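[audit] Reproducing an earlier prediction to check determinism. Same input, same settings, fresh worker. If the tokens differ from the archived copy the diff job will pick it up downstream; this log only records the rerun itself.
[audit] input (81 residues):
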Amino acid sequence: MINGKCPHCGSTEIYVSDDPFRDTFLVRTEAGADVFGIRCYLCLSCRAMEMHAAERSPSLFGKSASLVEEVPNSKNWKKVA
């Protein structure tokens, strides 16, 4: 959907929100919690929705972490088997 076309129905009636769910989700680690921004895409034709996480975002502790580094070791995200 990030290209403006719905992969489910082909519609171009796509809208994006830079502030869904207060624009954050948490990755809880031993050091605390890092906050990563997300964008949410919605197709008005078929109501499909996608969320895309930012790769890097300032953490609550003033450093920058990446999703690839933090999610595998987080307390609240688990790999699907």
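[audit] rerun output stored. Observation attached for the diff report: The helical segments are 67-70.
[audit] end
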